[in-house]
């Protein structure tokens, strides 16, 4: 909230206004630009390729100016404040600086026409002029394929803890619910939007960890990916064990990527560099991601960025309840916790 941000500013902490694919707080924190222009920075951390092709920090700058913020306060937040705060080796057009700057179409939309680094033109009207370099992708997958038996959850008396995801936010909640079962095992409950979530350690052979999550909205199939902050194990969410197994094993087979599947139909994006990045051009990656994301929406998800939201479910330092390769983690207590209440 703005009040929390102001308290941090008064304590000497700078605030980043963030517009990523999943986490967005520009609208909430915009008023801080006018009140505390020297303590504000912009960022677009965790942004999907199709979003990046539409713009980056320049789009935040344009939004801020259109909403009435002072142009020079906005440019300070985008340029001067982060360079000075992080001591970045980037010129600020001061005497003796390297010639690092961009040329934009106007001071309203801020569409980038040219980019100069150290005085060299590296981008010019949609053409990147930096020489391309090739290399052998580095990757590491040492896990075995999983089976439905590996992710079964015994039905024990009582309630279970459920991760509650929120669209556009990295913070999660916790609910204690009476789980749906097939008699012997706890299963996903599509009617209540409580789905099984699985994390598989991709760096070694170990037992998959299982939890349950609310608000992903899938009505069929499963999604999986090897982007799972910060360890980047395999993470999957689905309506049935067979769908989850299919999705996880596709990630293992491809040695990284994201995938959506149901009824043996698959749409995926292979990430051959550490299971996190692709060697293909940005436009190709963006198109493939768009197809996968479109399929997830057709499977029922209403989240703005389901894959990015899923990736943060394994980040064990953001409250409240998360899941890693060693099980459910209660961030408030900063300790692992049981699925069962």
Q: Which key phrases capture this entry?
A:
341 residues, four-stranded antiparallel beta sheet
**Kindly, what is the distance between the CA atoms of the first and last residues, rounded to a whole number of angstroms?**
31 Å
Q: Summarize the helix and strand pattern as letters.
A: HEHHEHHHEEEEEEEEEEEEHEEHHEEE
- Main sheet strand line-up: 9-8-12-11-14-13-15-16
Structural class: alpha+beta
- Classify the helix fraction into a percent range: 10-25%
Main beta sheet: 8 strands, mixed
How would you sum up the global shape? globular
Weakly predicted, low-confidence segments: none
Give the integer mean of the pLDDT values.
Answer: 94
Computed over alpha carbons, the radius of gyration is 22 Å
Total helices: the number is 9
Q: What percentage of amino acids are in beta strands?
A: 15-25%
Total strand segments:
19
Describe the SSE topology.
Elements: H1 2-10, E1 15-18, H2 26-29, H3 32-35, E2 40-43, H4 49-52, H5 57-66, H6 71-86, E3 101-104, E4 112-117, E5 120-124, E6 127-128, E7 153-154, E8 160-164, E9 173-177, E10 185-186, E11 194-200, E12 209-214, E13 222-225, E14 234-238, H7 241-254, E15 257-262, E16 265-270, H8 282-298, H9 306-311, E17 321-324, E18 327-330, E19 335-336
Parallel strand pairs: 1-2, 8-12
Antiparallel strand pairs: 3-4, 4-5, 5-6, 7-10, 8-9, 11-12, 11-14, 13-14, 13-15, 15-16, 17-18, 18-19
Describe this structure in words.
25% of the residues lie in helices and 24% in strands. The longest helix is centred in the C-terminal third of the chain and has 17 residues, at 282-298. Strands 9-8-12-11-14-13-15-16 form an 8-stranded mixed sheet, with helices on both faces. The protein starts with a helix and ends in a 5-residue tail after the last strand. With 341 residues, the protein is α+β, with helices and mostly antiparallel strands.
């Amino acid at each position: 909230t703005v009040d929390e941000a102001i308290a941090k500013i008064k304590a000497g902490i700078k605030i980043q206004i963030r517009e990523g694919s999943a986490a967005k707080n520009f609208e909430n924190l915009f008023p801080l630009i006018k009140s505390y222009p020297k303590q504000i920075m912009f960022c677009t951390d965790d942004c999907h390729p199709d979003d990046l092709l539409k713009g980056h920090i320049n789009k935040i700058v344009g939004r801020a100016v259109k909403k009435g913020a002072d142009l020079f306060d906005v440019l300070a937040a985008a340029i001067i404040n982060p360079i000075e705060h992080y001591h970045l080796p980037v010129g600020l057009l001061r005497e003796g600086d390297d010639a690092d700057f961009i040329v934009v179409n106007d001071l309203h939309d801020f569409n980038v026409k040219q980019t100069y680094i150290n005085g060299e033109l590296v981008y010019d009207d949609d053409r990147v002029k930096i020489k391309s370099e090739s290399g052998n992708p580095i990757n590491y997958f040492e896990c075995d394929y999983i089976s439905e038996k590996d992710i079964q959850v015994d039905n024990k008396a009582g309630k279970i803890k459920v991760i509650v995801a929120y669209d556009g936010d990295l913070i999660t909640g916790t609910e204690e619910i009476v789980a749906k079962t097939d008699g012997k095992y706890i299963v996903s409950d599509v009617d209540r939007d409580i789905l099984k979530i699985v994390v598989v350690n991709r760096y070694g052979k170990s037992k998959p960890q299982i939890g349950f999550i609310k608000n992903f909205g899938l009505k069929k199939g499963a999604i999986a990916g090897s982007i799972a902050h910060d360890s980047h194990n395999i993470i999957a969410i689905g309506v049935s064990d067979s769908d989850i197994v299919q999705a996880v094993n596709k990630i293992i087979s491809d040695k990284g990527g994201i995938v959506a599947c149901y009824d043996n139909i698959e749409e995926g994006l292979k990430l051959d560099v550490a299971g996190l990045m692709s060697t293909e051009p940005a436009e190709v990656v963006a198109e493939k991601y768009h197809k996968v994301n479109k399929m997830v929406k057709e499977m029922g998800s209403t989240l703005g960025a389901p894959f990015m939201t899923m990736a943060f479910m394994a980040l064990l330092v953001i409250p409240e309840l998360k899941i890693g390769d060693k099980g459910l983690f209660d961030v408030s207590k900063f300790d692992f916790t049981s699925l069962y209440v």
